[in-house]
Amino acid sequence: MNLWHLKVLLLFLLIHATESAFPETYQWINIDCGAESYTLDTKNLINWETDTEYIQTGKNKNVTEMYTNITMQMKTLRYFPENTSPNCYSFLTDGIEKYIVRASFYYGNYDGLMKPPTFNVSVNGFKWMTVVTNSSQDEEPIVIEGIFSPGADQMQVCLESPQDGDVPFISSLEVVQLPFNTYYRLIELRTAFLLQQRATFGREEDVVYTGNFTGDRFNRIWKAKGFPNHTNMSTSLQYSYYYVDNQPPYAVLENAIEAPSLLDPIILSFNLSQTNQSLCAMLYFLEINNSRKVNDSREFQINIGGQKNTTTVNLQLGEPVLVTLYPEWVVGPVNITMSAVQGSTLPPMINAMEVYTVMEMYSVPSPTSEASRALLSFTFLVLCYFYALL
Ligand SMILES: *[C@@H]1O[C@H](CO)[C@@H](O)[C@H](O)[C@H]1NC(C)=O
Ligand SMILES: *[C@@H]1O[C@H](CO)[C@@H](O)[C@H](O)[C@H]1NC(C)=O
Ligand SMILES: *[C@@H]1O[C@H](CO)[C@@H](O)[C@H](O)[C@H]1NC(C)=O
Ligand SMILES: *[C@@H]1O[C@H](CO)[C@@H](O)[C@H](O)[C@H]1NC(C)=O
Ligand SMILES: *[C@@H]1O[C@H](CO)[C@@H](O)[C@H](O)[C@H]1NC(C)=O
Ligand SMILES: *[C@@H]1O[C@H](CO)[C@@H](O)[C@H](O)[C@H]1NC(C)=O
Ligand SMILES: *[C@@H]1O[C@H](CO)[C@@H](O)[C@H](O)[C@H]1NC(C)=O
Ligand SMILES: *[C@@H]1O[C@H](CO)[C@@H](O)[C@H](O)[C@H]1NC(C)=O
Ligand SMILES: *[C@@H]1O[C@H](CO)[C@@H](O)[C@H](O)[C@H]1NC(C)=O
Ligand SMILES: *[C@@H]1O[C@H](CO)[C@@H](O)[C@H](O)[C@H]1NC(C)=O
Ligand SMILES: *[C@@H]1O[C@H](CO)[C@@H](O)[C@H](O)[C@H]1NC(C)=O
Ligand SMILES: *[C@@H]1O[C@H](CO)[C@@H](O)[C@H](O)[C@H]1NC(C)=O
């Protein structure tokens, strides 16, 4: 059975398994870099492909045997020893759509040198991230993610061979097209939001795509973030319909942390680089105290980086709230503080958070791409001309 048949079969299975109310996972691209054959994850029906359709350069390799406590996708990788920089995975894209892209890197001493490399990853010629694989802790893979609105008919995720002879590699690459461009509406054309943190509060386990309604629809990963001394709240929403922008999964909205008392703030802290960056923070709130009394109120102020300007939230049962702080220009460590206002009877709480930095993809990075763009639009014009003749 070839790949095409497999995809058709998967599509069929999915539509029937989920009554077509569920995301179009058959459009997702999940590449198990370095794998010799595709694998179907039977738990969530994600089909992991090989690199073949997306990249020509590089070689396949397995990690060293002793590293076994990792997912199957991390056991193989593709590395690029030829110094034919850049080494690009190419995807056809729709010019106005947005794509969640996640790349994972697990060194696993595949080359026997015990020397994890450092290299840059770019998207359509714009530098996304410097991946420092020796910074991985406890043998965890390095995972980077962003939401890209490439504004082009192609998206190229490239690994650049550094000057110092380090050899770049990649373990997996996942691309999910958002079904409507109303999701993450602040992401303008030719802009990307680079993920710094996506957290779910008051739960023990991360929330991921599960293959059914309980998990995330777009393959996002919500990391469970523990807060010592904060109250963990949870409820069961039983799939009653709550609509919030960006549709965080129910599992995420069902849980929250609450400040230990009315006098204590909730402080969310994170570290950003020392350069001035534009930041977007999305904070998700849903009152889940079902024993809340009629005259109770949960009102608090949100403040970022000690600024005077604050946003006030007054939560009501059954009404989710998304507070977006954007654009905030920040340098170095940042605190987002939530403190109860005078008269509130319940302390501040929060269910989930996403934090991104913003990358513009406006300028034309090099003369060569300018040339190929000109060529493309020329081809387009010629095509239009022929259509006009027909
Ligand atoms: C990796 O290991 C698998 C099975 O253990 C084997 O089939 C495959 O050929 C190996 N890949 C490479 C590049 O050595
Ligand atoms: C394997 O990984 C899991 C989670 O990544 C961890 O909880 C567990 O302790 C690890 N087991 C060993 C033997 O390292
Ligand atoms: C990781 O690599 C960077 C640059 O290659 C180096 O500066 C740093 O000291 C290394 N860190 C560790 C823990 O080896
Ligand atoms: C990554 O790119 C920056 C420029 O954006 C460059 O200064 C740096 O040397 C590159 N790092 C590596 C490891 O290639
Ligand atoms: C959804 O999938 C998860 C993980 O596979 C499973 O634990 C859970 O029971 C499933 N829930 C339903 C309602 O099918
Ligand atoms: C809430 O759960 C986190 C772990 O997820 C834990 O660290 C914290 O102590 C718990 N809070 C309380 C008050 O039990
Ligand atoms: C949590 O509360 C305990 C007891 O009140 C205190 O000793 C500890 O320092 C607190 N931890 C944090 C992180 O505030
Ligand atoms: C931020 O970085 C500093 C120094 O590198 C560290 O002490 C601090 O714990 C970090 N804070 C967070 C929230 O990670
Ligand atoms: C950061 O950049 C923004 C926009 O260019 C500017 O308004 C702001 O003053 C800068 N902040 C710092 C600390 O340099
Ligand atoms: C829920 O509301 C009730 C009634 O006001 C209150 O007694 C209780 O402490 C609240 N629980 C939480 C976790 O906020
Ligand atoms: C304060 O925030 C509001 C909305 O968040 C914004 O409209 C207003 O311009 C801000 N004021 C200042 C002084 O930054
Ligand atoms: C963030 O809050 C912590 C207290 O949790 C405080 O120690 C730290 O100085 C604050 N950092 C900034 C940059 O305001």
Automatic annotation (TrEMBL):
Residues 1-20 form the signal peptide. It is a single-pass membrane protein. Keywords: Signal. It is found in: Membrane. InterPro entries: Malectin-like_Carb-bd_dom (IPR024788). Its main location: membrane. GO terms for cellular component: membrane. The keyword Lipid biosynthesis does not apply. Residues 31-358 form the Malectin-like domain. PANTHER family: CARBOHYDRATE-BINDING PROTEIN OF THE ER PROTEIN, OS07G0107800 PROTEIN-RELATED. This is Malectin-like domain-containing protein. It comes from Dioscorea zingiberensis. The lineage of its organism: Eukaryota, Viridiplantae, Streptophyta, Embryophyta, Tracheophyta.
